[in-house]
Amino acid sequence: MSKILVTGGLGFIGSHAVVELVNAGYEPVIVDDLSNSQLAILDQITKIIGYKPAFHQLDLSVEADVNSLALAEPDITGVIHFAAFKAVGESVGHPLKYYRNNFYSLINLLNAYYAKPVNLVFSSSCTVYGQPDVLPVTEDAPVKPAQSPYGNTKQVAEEILKDMIFSGGSRYKVVSLRYFNPVGAHHSALIGELPIGVPQNLVPFITQSAIGKRGNITVHGDDYNTPDGSCIRDYIHVVDLAKAHVAALRLMEKESFTGYDMFNLGTGTGSSVLEVIHAFERSTGVKLNYQIGPRRPGDVEQVWGDVTKSTQKLGWKAELGIDEMMSSAWEWEKYIETNPF
Ligand code: WQD
């Protein structure tokens, strides 16, 4: 069975990817430093897949530890690299923390398996597009100057990977996946998003407000040039997103695939903040309390993805809609309320 290293495998997207890897017949090996996840998620994954996957707790930014990992796990055929710090706001205040962790981890990992024929899936982000000039945004749209150190780490990481592939020195194949806004949870409600502290992202704030852990939702601005004035994003169900990582591995396993490619992972449909709020109320029957507040610095007005290339070349398309995203997120919030980790 093909062993796939999943760095950040106990995180929100990583844990869902571990489940989809097993569903697709792969053997995941989880690596996580638990800086933004909890060991309890390993038990939750075990409940879903029926066995406890291999797990290594280590900090990928420490070269010696990554080299030890490669000795312990020499026969991996692929890597899905999620592990990175990802809080946009925090990165503005602590740039060196972000550059050190996100770049040291990536480079240590690349060096550790450099001589092996490994298929690497890299977790990138639509944040590299900034505010696109044309919507929906395609993969060949210009990468805009990063709005945050976090966004810069994603842009530079993509360049590092392309430079490595085109230097011809390694046996890697690489696919970068540019996520739009991952939300929702596994249908079992056993895994989902576990924000630390007050959620910065919209959907976890909505579910925590709905369950009474937070006050009213503040809509960050309703004076944008959009139909209802609130910002538009391309929200994608985390399970659909996870399945795209399996499709990326399958693509690289084809003889015809050489080098590097990159794909948008969205639904191709934009939803405004107010539409998301109303979708949550519609799909859960729970009334939300919200008020309009000032714009949030750094927000782009509207962005959603063109997913033609992902559908045609990756052979993948999102299947779950905004109502399933909201209802699954709500089921997860209720689960952790009664089963706190
Ligand atoms: C969505 C919309 C907010 C909270 C971020 C990262 C991006 C990616 C996904 C990693 C915006 C509005 C939010 C609230 C609100 N992460 N909002 N009230 O900023 O699009 O993307 O997460 O790759 O890189 O930047 O997601 O959920 O924070 O915001 O009105 O309480 O919801 O202003 O318009 P964002 P988000």
From TrEMBL:
Keywords for this protein: Carbohydrate metabolism, Isomerase, NAD
GO molecular function: UDP-glucose 4-epimerase activity
Pathway: Carbohydrate metabolism; galactose metabolism
Domain of life the protein comes from: Bacteria
InterPro entries for the chain: NAD(P)-bd_dom, NAD(P)-bd_dom_sf, UDP_G4E
Catalytic activity field: UDP-alpha-D-glucose = UDP-alpha-D-galactose
Needed co-factor(s): NAD(+)
Residues annotated as domain NAD(P)-binding: 5-327
EC number: 5.1.3.2
Residues of the signal peptide: none
GO BP, one annotated term: galactose metabolic process
SUPFAM superfamilies to which the protein is assigned, alphabetical: NAD(P)-binding Rossmann-fold domains (SSF51735)
GO CC annotation terms, alphabetical: cytosol
Family statement: Belongs to the NAD(P)-dependent epimerase/dehydratase family.
Subunit note: Homodimer.
Protein's name in the database: UDP-glucose 4-epimerase
